Amino acid sequence: MRGKVVQVKINDLAYAGQGLGISGGGQRVLVWGALPGETVTAQVGRVVTDKGFEALEATVMEVLEKSPHRIEPEEKHYIISSPWQIVTYEKELEYKELIGRKVFGEVADVGVGGLEVVDNGEVYGYRNSMDFNVIQDKNTLKLALLSRGRKRKIRIKGSKLAYPVIDEVARDILKILNDSEKTFLAHVEPLPQYSREKFFQNKGLIEQLRIKIRANRNGEFVWGVFDKEGNKVLKQVQDDSKEYLEEKILGKSLRTGVDNFFQINPSMFEKTVEKMKEFVQGDNIVDYFGGVGTISIALSDVIGSSVIVENDSKCTKWAGENIKLNKCENIKVETARSEEALEYINKDKIIILNPPREGVHESVIKRILEVSPKKIIYLSCKPFTQARDIKPLLWQYKIAHLELYNFFPRTPHIESLVVLEK
Which of 3, 39, 61, 84 has the largest CB neighbor count within 10 A? Predict the structure, then answer.
């Protein structure tokens, strides 16, 4: 089936943002790069199966009948990084509202009318970090991203989604890698056994390299080149020597490294935290998946106290430093998985959840139902798992607030904030 070309009439959008339609052979097809109302030919990449659902996942090859909302993409590699570059921004917001209503209606059985999609007008240049792969072309390294399905690398020049300084830094890093023996060896850190020639001969090492760059809104940056084990291959010198980056969120200074989680779109993230403030006045909170302390510290002036629970020790290291930096005596941090720190969920607490895309562990949901905390604030980068997680909670809680945030313009991804009250 892989590689087969099918013709599809697109009549809907899937939760993940692909065009959804039926092929001439009657098969359900999810097509990246296709919009509702279009007829396209698409090449099949794989068969997707999930709990009785089966579909072909494919990539558009030719658009036979175009949507009036289709526009030219800004980048040739748009399919793998931001597949909604092909639709007008106004229609993108409509599509995201539609997907939000479908997800919460079909997964959580919540009747949702009009959903507001909060945005700030930024369409490109909003990402504060990028994780690039590299590809070798005639003994020269170039930037790359993994294709959909992560089967191969696609050469790119940069990313229009990222802060402009990130592309500039990426080019400088490639120059170090591709430059003279003297320049190269001045930057090699854990691999002193490699001359530049031996480095380039080691195709296994080249294939696993990842360039990570993070910048703040002032144009400052940190970077690193890592192997597949997470070891830093290149050291930073001269002006690049800082090991952390500092960003302000609602006036609070937050420090973070290059290789741990931090919110990708700080300007939009601030809007979600401002909304949270309305629901936590003077309360004691437990901040699960708390990262480097961003939410708790940003809320520190309006809450009673907070316990940050985070399983990544790199993040909790920075959280501890950020607590000291901002003199937040009402916040403490614990390195633990959420399901291993259930004792913090008490009746008098407000529980804040900001999990990765996989959502919340079922034991956390079970504990919430047993103890019945006063309020749940759930921020998610994947509304599907969020809707799944809140469905059993709706036996005890009602939705006090539900709002979508366009953290990731030009992509189908959407951030959603749900507040549950008794």
Answer: 84
Q: At what angle do helices 383-390 and 89-107 cross, to 10 degrees?
A: 30
Supply the CATH number for residue 222's domain: 2.40.50
Same domain as 391, residue 303: yes
Domain shared by 339 and 270, yes or no: yes
Q: How many residues does the chain have?
A: 422
Q: How many domains does the structure of the chain reveal? A: 3
| Domain of residue 219, residue span | 129-246
Select from 242, 347, 328 the least CA-distant residue to 290: 328
Within this chain, do residues 220 and 360 fall inside the same structural domain, yes or no? Answer: no
Give domain status of residue 80, yes or no: no
Q: Kindly give the confidence (pLDDT) of every residue in the chain, 422 residues in length, as a single tens digit, with 9 standing for 90 and above.
A: 788 999 999 999 999 999 999 998 888 999 999 999 999 999 998 888 877 778 999 999 999 999 999 999 999 999 999 999 999 999 999 999 999 999 999 999 998 777 889 999 999 999 999 999 999 888 788 999 998 876 789 999 999 999 999 999 999 888 888 886 666 666 666 555 667 777 777 777 777 889 999 999 999 999 888 877 777 777 654 445 468 999 999 999 999 999 899 999 999 999 999 999 999 999 999 999 999 999 999 999 999 999 999 999 999 999 999 999 999 999 999 999 999 999 999 999 999 999 999 999 999 999 999 999 999 999 999 999 999 999 999 999 999 999 999 999 999 999 999 999 99
| Domain shared by 100 and 133, yes or no | no
Domain co-membership, 316 together with 412: yes
Residue 82 within any structural domain of the chain = no
Asked if residue 116 belongs to a domain, the reply is yes
Residues 361 and 224 in one domain: no
Residue 251 located in a structural domain: no
Q: Count other Cβ atoms within 10 Å, centred on residue 123.
A: 16
